[in-house]
Amino acid sequence: MAKFELNSILKNWSIFEISWLVVFFIIGIILNIVWESDFVSTLAFITGIFCVVLAAKGSIWNYAFGLINCITYAYVAFHSLLYGEVILNLLYYLPMQFIGIHLWMRNTTTDKRIQMKELTLSKQIGLFAITIICVILFQQFLIMLGSTYTGLDSITTVVSVVAQILMALRYKEQWLLWIIVNIISIIMWTLAGNPIMVLMWTAYLINAVYGYYNWNKGAKLNV
């Protein structure tokens, strides 16, 4: 990965995008104080926000923040008995950060943005069928582990795995899957009683909608 420079990360950002990032960062800090959230939850929130916003921009720097987020989020999930989330982050997301860095570095444009693509209809249908089967099988595994909210946990875990693969391969459809994951995660963390995580996933949801909009434009430019 290139040398860390703030200007390289924020290059070609609009006022709206910078404001969006700053606002949620400030909200996270304020709510951490008000709700007396633990440090790890707050760190997971902050790194997560930076990660998804940079991903929506098509910036390879999203993986740097993603590495930290994988570890901190897994810690929070473990203490909430959401073992599917723990497995997802430590055994899948974490190594996928390095794979993503490698693949994105091989497919960047002259301004350091990645080349975006879209799936054909037949691939979308096949992907949907495989995802449904995996959700059912993984839920049974979580039941054996004694996890809580196995249905929701299974959907978020499996769909996240598929979305992360699409992200590494630079397909815009990843954002439709992230929207599903974000909605279910909001419900799951509300039930788990962790407000800072609810806020984080709400921010993710808003960002995913913008991410799809931005990547849809990018994919059309690369046709």
TrEMBL record:
The keyword Membrane applies. GO terms for cellular component: plasma membrane. Its main location: membrane. Keywords: Cell membrane, Membrane, Transmembrane, Transmembrane helix, Transport. The lineage of its organism: Archaea, Methanobacteriati, Methanobacteriota, Stenosarchaea group, Methanomicrobia. It is a multi-pass membrane protein. This is Nicotinamide riboside transporter PnuC. InterPro entries: NMN_transpt_PnuC. The gene is pnuC. The chain crosses the membrane at residues 12-33, 39-56, 63-81, 87-105, 125-143, 149-168, 175-192, 198-215. It comes from Methanimicrococcus stummii. One of its GO terms (molecular function) is nicotinamide riboside transmembrane transporter activity. It comes from the Archaea. Signal peptide: none annotated. NCBIfam families: NMN_trans_PnuC (TIGR01528). It is found in: Cell membrane.
